[in-house]
Each structure stands twice: as structure tokens, then as C-alpha cells.
Amino acid sequence: MKLRWAAGSPYVRKVMVTAYETGLEPRIERIATDYHAPGSDISAHNPLGKVPALIADDGRIVIDSPVICAYLDTLHKGPKMIPDSGDTRWNALHLEALADGMLDAAIAVQRERGRPEDKRWPDWIDRQWVKFERAMDWLDKNAKLLEGPVTLGQIAIGCALGWIEFRLKDKLGDWDKRWPAVAAWYRKFAERPSMKATVPK
Ligand SMILES: N[C@@H](CCC(=O)N[C@@H](CS)C(=O)NCC(=O)O)C(=O)O
After folding, report:
1. 47 ligand 1 Cβ < 6 A
2. Residue 20 beta carbon below 6 angstroms from any ligand 1 atom
3. Atom of ligand 1 nearest to the CA of 107
4. Which of 83, 139, 142, 170 has its CA 20 to 30 A from that of 94?
5. Which residues pair with 30 in a beta bridge?
């Protein structure tokens, strides 16, 4: 399989952590992709111009990290990252959706901050950041959902927090104090070999 890959992308990282956790990593060839470059050929595999995109062994193209991870989960015989049924399934998918939404909001903040100062809209930054803060408040109260064998939900939350801590450290502040249950869980999760092998640089 080939993966349209970029080192700094948290969505790509989610796919790669899933690949490590399921033993599929050796089967994935990373194709480094500069999706911002004018004329980038990423649209040949994803008309939306986004990474990650997977080119499966049979030529099938799979886009969007939740779909790629679900696809990878069909290719191995070990414990499923998306459990087949019951509470664990819906908790995993719920956490993944929450994590992706946290990231979407955080990336919107980072993009807005990257504009020339006279083109920035502070209200937009606040509106996005509050989504992240509300999600973290909820997660801290429901941190027990992060317990148990590794799932795609945990992977997605781990990768989202890894990116936000890396890119928006100043906004995040002393988050170990504000969201202690999530922070404690994250510090431990970040020690997994799959997370260490994919640290954003
Ligand atoms: N929902 C997508 C989001 C992917 C995404 O936004 N990737 C970013 C890199 S972190 C990208 O390729 N952005 C390019 C663009 O939006 O034009 C997923 O989960 O895969």
C-alpha cells in the first residue's frame, strides 16, 4: 500500500499510529507530499487536495483518515481498533469524531493566526478555540472513556493533543492543571511505541 503522507499532519499520524498498532506499518510505503505546493499532484489521489490518501494494493483509493483507519482495520487479524459492536465500538467512534473536531477547530485557529495581522479575525479564533476548550472540559469529565485496550478513539485523541501541544503551545497554556485527567492519560499514551515512532517534527 502507498500512503500520501506528510510529516506534520495529525490526520496522517492517526493513520500511521493505527498502522503501527495493527502490525501493518511495514506494508505501507510513505509518499511524502507537499500538499500546499502549487501544482501538487495530491489531487490525482484526492480531489479535495488533502492528505492522508491511501492507495491500496488492489489500486483502490481510500481518502479521509477515519475511512482509511477503518479500511486498515479490515486487513489484520489482531484486536480491532474499531470494536465490532457494543459500547466500546460507539465510544471509539465518538472519541474519534470528537478528536477530529478538536483538530479541525485548532487548525482553523492556526491558519487564522498565520494571516497578515490586518486580515485576522480575532472573533473567529475565539469561536474556534472555545470548541476545543468545551471538548476538553467534556473529555476531562468523561476520561474513563479513554481507559481500556487501545482503540481508534484513543489514537485520534492522542494524535489531536500531540499536534495541538506542538503547534499551539502558547494557547494551550498549563493544560495539565486545567484538564488533569486527560493530561495524565495523554502523557502515558504518548509513551506507546506507535506514538513515539510518529512524533511530529
Ligand atoms: N478530514 C480529513 C482532514 C485532512 C486534512 O485536513 N489534511 C490537511 C493536512 S493536516 C490537508 O491536507 N490540508 C490541505 C488542504 O486543506 O488544502 C482527514 O481526516 O483525513
Report:
1. no
2. no
3. 10
4. 170
5. 3
Q: What is the pLDDT of residue 200?
A: 78
pLDDT in tens, 13-45: 999 999 999 999 999 999 999 999 998 999 999
User: CA nearest 52: which of 89, 90, 100, 92?
Assistant: 100
CA 42 / ligand 1 centre spacing (Å): 11
The per-residue pLDDT of the chain, averaged, comes to: 97
- Grid cell locating 133: 476548550
Single pTM value for the model = 0.97
User: Could you tell me the distance, in angstroms and rounded to a whole number, from the CA of residue 50 to the centre of ligand 1?
Assistant: 4
Evaluate if residue 165 carries a pLDDT over 80: yes
State residue 30 phi and psi, 5-degree precision: -80, 130
The answer on pLDDT for 157 being more than 90 is: yes
Nearest-CA residue for ligand 1 atom 6 is 50
pLDDT tens for residues 47-58?
A: 999 999 999 999
Given the C-alpha cell 491511501, which residue does it identify? 54
Atom of ligand 1 nearest to the CA of 51: 12
State the residue for C-alpha cell 485496550.
Answer: 149
Cα angle 71, 89, 105 (rounded to 5 degrees) comes to: 75
